[in-house]
Amino acid sequence: MDVVDSIRHGQHDRLRRASPEHPISANVRKNHEPQKPPRVITSNATILSGFAIPLTPNLTHGYDPLYREMKDHSARIVVVCPEYPSPSGGVRKMYRHVDVLIANGIPAVILHQQPGFRCQWFESRTAVAYPGDAWPPAPSDILLVPELFIWQFIEQAPGTPKVVFNQNAYQTFRGHSIAHQTMPYGKPDCLASIVVSEDSRRYLEFAFADHRVFRIHNSVNPALFCFQPDKKRRVAFMPRKNSSDAMQVINLLNCRGKLRGYQLVPIEGKSELETAQTLRESMIFLSFGFQEGWSMPSMEAMACGCVTIGYDGRGGREFFDSRHAIVVEPQDVIGFADSVETAISRLDDADPQLCKMARDASEFVLRTYTPQREEEDIVATWRQILQILEVAR
User: What is the Cα–Cα distance from 51 to 297, expressed in whole angstroms?
Assistant: First the structure.
């Protein structure tokens, strides 16, 4: 598949994910069979990001002994997870969330609807359960639900405490009209939301003034996404991210002959290890993401020492700034292409300032967004939520 086909494939994939189907069956199954949870999206998404540290080495696939033991505890976090067979940064963070909770003595499990399903594009021993073992929810369960699915789960499991894992506040109202009156964030059993950026926190607090919002900090795996000084003349990007702008920028550069001597490397369908290797070897990363809760691919690229050029996605403004990247105004494709041209020229001249910016960006990301900080945030957030629930009960 060439670069143009990769971008087109990414555009079609984006359209599939932007218009999810949410078939819901409200009827209890006959003969007391366990009711399936609302079906979550299955997609061929191609964005890769996220990571894990093996915090739970004793877990095994699916219905493991530790998971069986957790069922007897007073509270269990059931993380409703989409069934993406291809890389998705948000799904990767859900698995990470469960690993952290279990490692810190808080029972948790991933809930997939399809029996036997488990994400295979990264290594994990995360506890996973399926309908019949974790659905319908037990009286002491707490559901952690993605922002796209909270609308249906608020109706499917009334009274069960719920927390929204809102990894992209700009998807909060996706699929709902301006006339929609039932807001799950105002329901008594919707206890709080967890977000991954200050931008998303601001969004939700502006929309739902009385709703609790907790912030956690994403991290990168420093063993995979780390600075590598010996770079190849490569320009990496993710075709699924804003494929329309990607097509325009790359064609503008090709028409002007400014990419000669450089290899364009689309990152799609790659494992976590393959993505990390691509970023470590690439001189430049093009960021096309817009209206994102967090710009995980850009953060990983910076950690690897790529000169990162493009859009901050709003959620990534905390690290994607003029000190650490070349920032382009959204939809300014000419400005984007011009910035790439200038960066290539400076790199060809071994511009010490640009090289220093890339090195400083790597050090800043790896110093600021550590696995330890992410773990501490997750644990502190859930201790507060569990205290709130205990008082309410």
Answer: 11
What is the rounded distance in angstroms from the CA atom of residue 330 to the CA atom of residue 340? 15
Counting Cα atoms < 13 Å in the Cβ hemisphere of 30 gives 0
Neighbours of 136 (CB within 10 A): 16
CA pair distance 321, 5, nearest whole angstrom: 31
Tens-digit pLDDT profile for residues 259-280: 999 999 999 989 899 999 999 9
Q: Are strands 128-129 and 190-195 parallel, antiparallel or unpaired?
A: unpaired
Residue 105 token pair = 């003595």
Nearest to 81 by CA among 27, 17, 129: 129
Indicate whether 302 pLDDT > 90.
Answer: yes
For domain 32-219+371-392, the question of CATH label 3.40.50.2000 is answered with yes
CA dihedral 308, 314, 315, 318 (to 10 degrees): 60
Average pLDDT over residues 104-120: 93
Closest to 7 measured CA to CA, from 262, 240, 286, 271: 240
Q: What is the 3-state secondary structure (H, E, C) of 257-276?
A: CCCCCCEEEECCCCCHHHHH
pTM of structure: 0.82
Cβ distance 373 to 126 under 8 Å?
A: no
Amino acid at 207: A
Fold of 232-368: Rossmann fold (3.40.50)
Give the distance from CA 277 to its chain's centroid. 19
The structure tokens listed for 121 are 């594009």
Could you tell me the residue ranges of all domains in the chain?
32-219+371-392, 232-368
Q: Choose among 4, 45, 15, 1: nearest CA to 249.
A: 4
Which of 162, 128, 163, 165 minimizes the C-alpha distance to 146? 165
The 3-state DSSP class for residue 110 equals strand
